[in-house]
Amino acid sequence: MDLVQRLKQKVTTEPPPVDITENLETLQFEITACAQATYFTVVLNEARQLRRQIKSPQKKTAKILQDREPKDQVKVGILGCGRLGSQLAHCLLTYGGVRPKDLKVSTRRPETLEYLQSKGVDCFYDNIKLITTSHIVYLCVLPSQIPSIAEELKHNIPPTVIFYSLVSTYTTKKLKQLLLTSNIIHPEFTWRDDSHTNTWDCTLNVNAALENPDTVEMTCPIGYKKSESIICTNEKFAEQMLFALMNWCTQLQLTKVETLEVIHSVLFQDLMEDKFREEDFIKRTDNLVGMFPRFDLVKVFQVKTPVQRKLVEDEHLRKTFVQKYLSVFDTYIKQRAQALLSGTADN
After folding, report:
1. CB neighbours of 306 closer than 8 A, spacing ≥ 6?
2. What is the DSSP string of 100-167?
3. Structure pTM?
4. What pLDDT, in 10s, does the model give residues 107-149?
5. Which of 69, 113, 128, 272 could potentially form a cystine with 123 if both were Cys, beta carbons 3.0 to 4.6 Å apart?
6. Which residues pair with 76 in a beta bridge?
7. How far apart are CA 246 and CA 263, in angstroms?
8. 240 and 297 in contact (C-beta within 8 Å)?
């Protein structure tokens, strides 16, 4: 066989080169998206439990937060359950403390979700049912599906439901126009040009990857390890989650004083100094028993606010925010380790 023939055979038999960063970026997008969504779900759940203590002072906060079977938990909906939606569901059940009976999934092929159904998750194909029975809905559909889904849902959306979009190509402004609601949050991601210098283990799934504290901190919107991440989240997203939590407290009929109490307890681990004040959000009034107005979450993302500046520049606030973020995943890992030692862990 002459040289030309050998070279031709080599071209036809060798596999094409593989761009390893393609899978790397997909993996980290899923890890980042699932981690942030899980954290926010935990925050909403804790706020809901704290509300019970605030409205029932005779009960102890610690008891409510440590109940083995908390009452009145957040009802979570996932709209679309392809690869990302499925990973998110597993993450919520593992790290988010979401009970299967409090998680619903609407997808065009619910029969493919046998694992989730075996856990007790209600899987069906009825988008209106999903949004009218959930407190928060995670949008995990393809961008091409958004217009038809929005047309189906826009006149049936309860005013209190929070939409958390993981559809990267649609901004909150555009989603607001389509869904006719401003109660939308959406992490804005950017990909680093030097992503090839970052080393991530592509053999891990999302749940396994989040057992690494360094990986978890890379996903935090205002974490200290963001520069090491392939995918970075706009720092404004931390502020958007804070305002969404404030709307949640208003929905729960909490006063301004009570709302700030929940914010500091849930997001900043009972921060004792450098606290947020009423005038950081609105013009100060003498009406301490009144409630905060409902904030337009889309506008919050578009404008500069004192809250964002304080959240990023105040080192104490930022540090406690990151610590709380990390604790969401660390708590499960410690519980898992204790269960393994005692021999009670699930197989």
Report:
1. 280
2. GGGEEEE-S-GGG-HHHHHHT-EEES-HHHHHHS-SEEEE-S-GGGHHHHHHHHTTS--TTPEEEE--
3. 0.86
4. 999 999 999 999 999 999 999 999 999 999 999 999 999 999 9
5. 113
6. 103, 136
7. 7
8. yes
